[in-house]
Design a protein that fits this description.
70% helix, sodium, globular, Na+/H+ antiporter like fold, 372 residues
Length: 372
């Protein structure tokens, strides 16, 4: 509980800092955020396992995750068009995609901090969060085509995604690379640096559509390919306590996770009310947040043969946290010239979901405390 509260405070401090900085230092903030996210996702991938004898189960999980991502997307797009009078469905569909992806880095860190790593909810949320982030990344390709037309850069993104997924499947836990924290920090830094270098290099030649590779997938895939660590703990990147080296691994993982929380908050766009009263804006933000989270409740109606209702409800609530991928969608939307009230509401809703993350995790903990 203590770690959940600390991480929540760090998120809020980061959000406040993003408004104070007013967009200054964005490049450095983005790079550190991606570095920390890569570190977390490498460990998540390293602890991830796939039963290759039962691939149909993952097809069902992907369908559940995709549906849980589609409902908030459609609900928010409809709200933007019918209530906020967004100019077109095309613009609304791009903007509303912010509500689809669960923040894998935030979710895993918070659930682990709450001591829920051994639960069915954590294991299932880990699969669904990865899949709905992947679904968002894939679906952004045709959405970008709606905005800028058919571009070769989008095909490059698709090819890279397919290759990474093949590598994760083919070489699951076969790569004999060291997994201690200095090495994982190095891997994470290389992944974040390469992704950003590709983006900035291609942006020189292609201002409209530079190649933007999300670090989440390559970091996760690398973790999947690496042989599993001998020891695991309830925190991403940690180990069981008892030896000084293992305790050091755990401390470093906690520091990086806390840093990630701060920088996720710092990476949020500057809030501008655009002349709308705060009361009216607050109502829209609350409604769009409610609508998007209702869409995330779909997993509650699935997995009836695996878990009781309370755990399925807890699983749905655990999918509420949004973060780095959703923020990336909003940044991309601004790059296409989209703005107005819908964008402001989307940014504030994303920020509100971040602030409420601690409460979501506490709710999950209360629902399954008897079985945790």
């Amino acid at each position: 509980m203590k770690k959940v509260l600390i991480y929540s405070v760090l998120l809020i401090l980061g959000l406040i800092g993003s408004q104070v900085l007013g967009g200054k230092g964005k490049d450095v903030i983005d790079l550190i955020t991606l570095w920390c996210l890569s570190f977390i996702m490498i460990h998540v991938g390293n602890e991830f396992d796939i039963d290759k004898n039962n691939p149909r189960q993952y097809a069902w999980d992907y369908l559940v995750a995709g549906t849980a991502a589609a409902f908030p997307w459609i609900f928010c797009a409809a709200y933007f068009v019918w209530v906020l009078n967004t100019d077109s469905w095309k613009d609304a569909l791009v903007l509303a995609r912010f509500s689809s992806p669960t923040s894998a880095g935030v979710l895993f860190s918070m659930l682990a901090a709450a001591g829920l790593s051994a639960t069915w909810v954590f294991r299932k949320a880990r699969v669904l969060a990865i899949f709905d982030d992947l679904d968002t990344i894939l679906l952004m390709i045709p959405l970008k085509m709606l905005m800028v037309g058919m571009r070769w850069e989008l095909m490059v993104n698709l090819v890279v995604i397919v290759v990474l997924l093949f590598l994760a499947w083919r070489y699951m836990h076969k790569l004999e690379w060291p997994t201690s924290y200095p090495w994982v920090l190095l891997y994470a830094g290389v992944i974040a640096g390469v992704c950003e270098l590709v983006y900035y290099t291609t942006s020189i030649f292609e201002d409209v559509m530079p190649i933007h590779l999300e670090v989440l997938l390559p970091a996760f895939v690398l973790g999947c390919m690496m042989k599993r660590s001998e020891a695991h703990s309830d925190e991403p990147g940690g180990h069981e306590e008892g030896h000084s080296h293992e305790s050091e691994e755990q401390r470093v993982a906690g520091i990086i996770t806390g840093t990630f929380m701060v920088f996720v908050g710092l990476s949020m766009p500057v809030i501008n009310t655009d002349g709308m009263s705060w009361n009216t804006l607050l109502i829209h933000v609350l409604l769009i947040t409610l609508v998007s989270n209702l869409g995330k409740m779909f997993p509650m109606f699935c997995y009836r043969d695996e878990a009781p209702l309370k755990e399925r409800l807890a699983l749905s609530i655990s999918m509420f946290p949004r973060g780095e991928v959703g923020a990336g969608v909003l940044v991309a939307s601004m790059g296409y010239g989209l703005g107005g009230t819908a964008l402001i509401v989307a940014v504030l809703s994303l920020a509100l979901n971040l602030v409420l993350t601690g409460l979501f995790i506490i709710g999950v903990q209360e629902l399954i405390k008897e079985r945790a």
